[in-house]
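Q: what does this look like with N-(5'-phosphopyridoxyl)-D-alanine bound?
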Amino acid sequence: MTARVFLNGQWLAPRDANVSVMDRGFLFGDGVYEVIPVYSRRPFRLEQHLSRLQHSLDGIQLTNPYRLDQWTGFVTQLAREAEWEDQSIYIQVTRGPMAVRNHAFPKQVAPTAVILAEAMQTPPESQREQGIAAVSAADIRWLRCDLKATSLLANCLLRQMAVAAGCVETVLFRDGFLTEGSASSIFVVKDGVLLAPIKNHLMLPGITYDVVLELAAQHGLAHEVRDITEAETRGADELWMCSSTKEVLPIVTLDGRKVGVGTPGPAFAQMYAWYQEFKATVMRAPA
Ligand code: PDD
């Protein structure tokens, strides 16, 4: 973690950044968050992340404690000061402390806002070159998966299923349709067409998901945004996972069975190259 973290308007040493045990974020998971990748000290898609933060805050009826320009200032400052060139910046806003434990919102809300940075942990090269293994599971989460809420117990249990099976991600199906991964968006490639599930209340509107679709459009890769069945997912030529911290990774086995021929596919290789090129032009251009 960074030498300084942001807590409610102050920059503090981590050990001085304390939150009450009565904080609703701690007791109820009553809060929302963002994870913003930073390349060469430049926050990637900051505006989109902050706009999704606003969507999540609206969804839980919590007033944003800061204006957009204030958030932009805080994040940019941290990205400039943190120990690493490439970082992952974490924002969390909870409904703050309450006097007595009560599910209903307190009358006077004093949100707890935290921003901290960690070194960017890019996936090992082997995962990109050889692909990763995934398991599948029923999507047991709630019906507001479009909100990036800190109450992530279901996601944690689902991710742990993958880890227990020696895999990287758990691909989720709800009522016979693909939703997403435990902490990633999932894409299918079939017969040269990139398929993406529709952004709705059953999945997080991924920022990386948007980048992947934009790159597909820009480079003329055929793509469709539509409901994707479990059978289509299992019969995919290629399966990808993507997120701010993992970028794009090929899934080569699902529940122990090969996806396509069982190696990273040509569409993935292309998307990965486009993604890196995009990052390089946007993030490494002279300031
Ligand atoms: N998670 N879906 C879920 C459930 C996620 O948790 C994430 C990312 C994504 C991908 O979204 P984006 O491309 O905007 O990162 C999709 C972050 C990285 C996390 O919880 O740490």
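Residues 35, 155, 180, 183-185, 204, 206-209, 243-245 surround N-(5'-phosphopyridoxyl)-D-alanine (CB under 6 Å). The radius of gyration is 19 Å.
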